Amino acid sequence: IDLSVGSVVCFSMVISGALFLAGLDPWTASLVGIAASALIGAIMGFFVTVVGLNHFITSLAAMVIVRGLCLIITKGTPLSLFSLPPSFKAIGQGSFHNIPYVILIFLVVVAVFDFLLRRATAFRKVFYTGSNQKAAQFSGIKTNQVKFWVTVLCSALAGFAGVIYMARFGAATPTFGAGMELNIIAAAVIGGASLNGGSGTIFGAILGMALLSVVTSSLILLDVSVYWQEMIKGCILLAAVSIDHFLHRKKS
After folding, report:
1. Residue 98: which region, alpha, beta or left (left: phi > 0; alpha: psi -120 to 50)?
2. Is the confidence at residue 251, as pLDDT, over 70?
3. CB of 86 within 8 A of CB of 80?
4. Going by C-beta distance under 8 Å and a sequence separation of 6 or more, which residues neighbour residue 197?
5. Best CA proximity match to 89, nearest among 17, 183, 166
6. Which of 58-67, 208-217, 238-247 has the lowest mean pLDDT?
7. Own/partner long-range contacts of 246-249 (Cβ < 8 Å, ≥24 apart)
8. Separation between Cα atoms, residue 99 and residue 106, nearest integer Å
9. Contact call for residues 40 and 8 (beta carbons, < 8 A)
10. DSSP 8-class letter at 197
């Protein structure tokens, strides 16, 4: 469970935006932002696999530290990026035959990683490690390497999302992404990913995300107070975690 995702998304936006304002072209600035995000993941992976810290606590610390870096770099003020070239803004705002590029990028990423999780040996090791780490080690899987590179990949993809958000909104706000990690965890768990590891699919997570979106939209249409909306989302997450807990206990 990576709690730093929302902060890393924001960090990528801030780094890329600041470099662009400093004179770097947006494409190179974005690559640096994604690389910096991956570095955050590598640092977390180091503390988890080498130092031996718990991943949950490590990502919690990273969430706070990276958010602080965003505030330090921007001095708490949003970066206005209205001067971004149209070719770059098209990533987040353009469309192909009335289909937004954002949706197309989303579909490509989903298809690629779903294929890799099902077919690639390296990605199957993620399931084995999550299901039973000791058994995976006895079968010759280097579980620490698996955990390290999964953490790096997660942060790199969060950085990629940050670049897309920057192109979409034409700004880099130091508070962007706050609370995003909770929605991500909820979507994954509702979609069938187990908190005990070893199970879950990308398409399941998409269905979980769709369900949360439908719930949110329905609450807005029903004119439910925004305060109640957050409470209802929390109840849905609690229910999903409870179901996962009872199912796992039943299997064991």
Report:
1. left
2. no
3. no
4. 129, 130, 131
5. 166
6. 238-247
7. 248/194, 248/196
8. 12
9. yes
10. S
131 with 198: CB under 8 angstroms? yes
Q: Are the C-beta atoms of 93 and 164 separated by less than 8 Å? A: no
Residue 181's SS3 state is helix
Nearest-angstrom CA–CA distance, 189 and 194:
6
Do 173 and 73 touch, CB atoms closer than 8 A? no
Nearest residue to 7 via CA among 157, 187, 177 = 177
Hey, how many other C-beta atoms are within 10 angstroms of the C-beta on 199? 16
Q: Which two tokens stand for residue 88?
A: 């770059």
**62-67, Cβ contacts within 8 angstroms, sequence gap of 24 or more:** 62/3, 62/4, 62/7, 62/8, 63/3, 63/4, 63/6, 63/7, 63/181, 64/7, 66/4, 66/7, 66/8, 66/10, 66/11, 66/40, 67/7, 67/10, 67/174, 67/178
pLDDT in tens, 216-227: 888 888 888 878
Among 21, 52, 55, 19, CA closest to 35: 19
In whole angstroms, give the CA distance from residue 140 to residue 148.
16
Q: Both tokens of residue 37?
A: 């995000």
Tell me the C-alpha distance between 240 and 190, whole Å.
Answer: 5
More confident position, 237 or 90: 90
